[in-house]
Amino acid sequence: MQPSCPVVLVHGWKSHPGVWEPLVRRLEEESFVCWNFSHSKLRDAGAEEIGRALMDFINNMREEHAYQGEIDIVCHSMGAAVTRYMLEVMDGDSRNISVRTLIGIGPPNNGSSMAELFNDPVHGPNILQQLAGTFVPKTYDPAADRLVQEFRSTGPFVQELRDVGLRSDIRYRVIVGGNVTGTPDFFPLFEGQTWEYSPDGWQMTARGDGIVSHADSCMPGADVAMLPDDPTALSVAASEYCHVRLPGNPEVVEQVIRFLRK
Hints:
By secondary structure, this protein is of the alpha/beta class. It has ten helices and eight strands. The radius of gyration is 18 Å and the shape is globular.
């Protein structure tokens, strides 16, 4: 029997739809219909602009395929925050977009500690220097990045998400990577740790994927899969479970398929 819901893919911040290639292949093998959304050209856009583009994309694909039923959405990183903003704030009352399952991979559901860190007057300059040329451009200025400013842990868009709450008609799923063995190769720039922001200040934790901590990702009532399921995998391919590699990680791909099949 073929799956009934098309799967919409939403990539993360400063990324592109090509990150989904391994997942797309598996979805096609499992006879899922896949709609791959790109916001890679909206480099200077904020959550509302990207959210509107995603909404238009979904409506256009529905019209093109003559389909008006439920959809599933799989997101990576900041793509999950934007998708939630579209669904819970922009479409929260009308609920014109009917979603069965929303799967966030390394999602900053409670805001991004990394976005907050970029703007920290004490730690920010050194962190940006560490990440320059790998996670951010060498000339990156966080103050000029609307999306990063909006989804700081203390940002207004995150507070708006908290205020409106989750949609009762959507099943929320979360997939996170973790460095339970404390392997430095997991994310060498931070010696295998992840920065985490709290009202008490900054700390570093192994409970994260190098960029997004588990505290950033946690969501009440959501099913959570923390990978790798077998910690010994970190002794073989630790870096495959860090944030930027999660969309193409084979274990993550299979977990997405399992969540979609539930």
